[in-house]
Amino acid sequence: MFQPEQKYNNGTSTSLTTDPTHGESTKSIDLKDPGKWPNTISDADRCFLVSRLLNEGKIEPDLNNTLRDGRQLTKEWFTKIMPNGLKVHRTWLVYSKSNNSLYCIPCKLFSHTEHQHPHKISALAKDEGFTQWKKLSERIPEHENSLNHKQCFCAWKNLESSLSKRSGIDKELQDMIALEEAHWKGVLYAIIDVILHLAKDGSPLRGSNENLDFS
């Protein structure tokens, strides 16, 4: 199947398939926990995640049980203090409760599209995530200043913009996902209407003839 390639302003690219069957796995993805995201993220999954995260807004991490090697993860790590003292929220940094680890959203979504050598992919983008709390003070700044992170971050924001405007080369895929969602919503509403109608009339949720003749 033809897979058009989307070019981003910073040179980052990713192919976008128009096969609607790739969207089947999106229904079970936990938006707030990257540790539960698929190991291999399809184009449909990527569009779904970016779109839903955009609608979700800021994700507040649950840091009640983050103890590792005697260290506790704190909310301060999700904020960057600029040289002028301004505090900026690290929107790219997300905590996974299931893995008790940290992930970089854009790198998790886009690092693997750049065909990088596995050893060069940041721990914040790997399946297990980043777990070395004692090295946070050096690894977080190191990661956010890396070229790969900047490229993935730009790709993330470009896709966000494209999805919010429903424009760009991925519009066909967006429309397919929207149509599929509308279809299943319609099916659900129809089922509910039938159940309510039967309940109102006191009718059973089965046929009147239970004797089936297959002869």
UniProtKB/TrEMBL annotation:
Region entry Disordered, spans: 1-35
Residue ranges with Basic and acidic residues bias: 21-35
Stretches assigned to the TTF-type domain: 80-168
Positions with biased composition (Polar residues): 1-20
InterPro entries (UniProt xref): Znf_TTF
Record's protein name: TTF-type domain-containing protein
Organism name: Homalodisca liturata
